[in-house]
Amino acid sequence: MAAGGMCAGVTRSRSERGERGVWQRRFYEHTCRDEADLKCCLDYLHVNPLKHGLVSRVRDWPWSSFHRHQRLGEYELGWGDASVWYGDEFSQFE
């Protein structure tokens, strides 16, 4: 905002809390406890475009770090096909 950016409209509830319309309201912070937890978080990130209906396979999202992890051998190329995901696997993260 100091650089001339615009603030989104402020709702009554935000105004009552002294909030501005800059940041998203929901924020979930999670510290990865171990390698298995980190893998779970990466799975969640990689499956997001699929979950939101933007692609039918994780590998079809060109901006994903999935491609790097797949080249490193951490994922099979076919991992994340829409036929295996039901949409509620990551509900505990939301």
TrEMBL record:
InterPro entries found in the cross-reference section: Transposase_17_sf
Residues in coiled coil: none
Any single GO BP term: DNA transposition
Gene Ontology molecular-function annotations: DNA binding; transposase activity
Classification via Gene3D superfamilies: Transposase IS200-like
Full protein name: Transposase IS200-like domain-containing protein
Annotated organism of origin: Caulifigura coniformis
Taxonomic placement: Bacteria, Pseudomonadati, Planctomycetota, Planctomycetia, Planctomycetales
